[in-house]
Design goal:
Order of helices and strands: EHHEEHEHHEEEEHHHEEEEE
Distance between the termini: 32 Å
Radius of gyration: 18 Å
CATH class: Alpha Beta
CATH topology: Glutamine Phosphoribosylpyrophosphate, subunit 1, domain 1
CATH superfamily: (Glycosyl)asparaginase
Shape: globular
Structural class: alpha+beta
Number of domains: 1
Oligomer: single chain
Length: 306
């Protein structure tokens, strides 16, 4: 059985390398995605995930994460979690329970504290300074400022698919706001019989199309991963533009049960993927009249790609 891993944004490159090593050495998909996302959560140079994440309107870094295992359909999620190192690890732990799988706010924090997860103040001097500079300005909230959600999808040699996400959410969001990232079917989904997916972009628009469940349903019904990804993003973009005269930025990564990948986007979007025949490489996806144009990014071009 082959293995494969795909992840969102250039910021996931180092994490994808480490996830690839785990899968290459007979590790499982959940180990791979947790390690890959953990690398991003710990890196203060990325301001949309984990440590040095950009704060909400009150100046607090409140984080969201989701995890799903495709063999059992078990999932866990946290929303508006403050003061812990790795929200995706907490989401993973919650997936072990038969109920109470999605916890938010103080309930999520109490659970994380009770189970010994490492606590950390994720507001750094850098992210607080950004908050001070921008908090008094009136302007619309937007995704993709300083990157966005990190999402990983992986297939291991046992045939198990896993999807996971982590984000600090929109900069200057309202207290308690949740986007798509911790919501099963919207920001993440995994089913060994269909495929797995993770989304990034404006959560409110992604949720309107329940994108990750939609793309997995198309793959289950015989669509290729790439055609399914292109179609769901294109259809939602077209529908929201018609109904509301605007659709914000949306990107989606997915993988079918054979390890074939797909990417859909309505903006230029960088992603990383690797499998048992290719090392981790950075690609640029761009919308192209209802389809997606994908280009390998050379080493000389990488510095100019987000």
């Amino acid at each position: 059985m082959k293995w494969a891993v795909i992840s969102t944004w250039k910021m996931s490159y180092e994490g994808n390398l480490q996830a690839s090593d785990i899968l290459k050495n007979q590790g499982n998909a959940e180990e791979a995605v947790l390690r890959g996302i953990g690398i991003v959560e710990d890196d203060p140079s990325f301001h949309s995930v984990g440590y040095s994440g950009l704060p909400d309107i009150e100046g607090h870094v409140r984080m969201d994460a989701g995890f799903m295992h495709g063999r059992t359909l078990s999932f866990g999620a946290v929303g508006a979690l403050e003061g812990f190192r790795s929200p995706v690890q907490v989401a993973h732990k919650l997936a072990e329970r038969p109920t109470n799988n999605f916890l938010v706010g103080e309930g999520a924090a109490e659970y994380a504290r009770k189970h010994g997860f490492e606590e950390r103040d994720n507001l750094t001097d850098d992210s607080y300074q950004r908050y001070l500079e921008e908090s008094g300005k009136l302007k619309p909230l937007s995704a993709y400022k300083g990157h966005d959600t990190v999402g990983f999808v992986a297939l291991d040699r046992n045939g198990d698919l896993v999807s996971a996400t982590s984000t600090s959410g929109l900069f200057l969001k309202d207290k308690g706001r949740l986007g798509d990232s911790p919501v099963i079917g919207c920001g993440f989904y995994a089913d060994n019989e269909a495929g797995a997916a993770a989304a990034t972009g404006l959560g409110e628009d992604i949720a309107k199309g329940v994108l990750c469940y939609q793309v997995c349903t198309l793959m289950k019904n015989g669509y290729s991963a790439q055609s399914a990804a292109s179609q769901v993003v294109s259809d939602l973009t077209r529908s929201l533009t018609k109904r509301r005269e605007h659709c914000d930025s949306i990107s989606l990564i997915c993988m079918d049960k054979e390890g074939n990948i797909g990417v859909g986007t309505n903006i230029p979007f960088a992603f990383v993927c690797a499998d048992d025949t290719h090392p981790a490489q950075l690609y640029l996806a761009e919308p192209a009249e209802g389809d997606t144009r994908i280009t390998l990014i050379s080493a000389t071009e990488i510095s100019g790609i987000d």
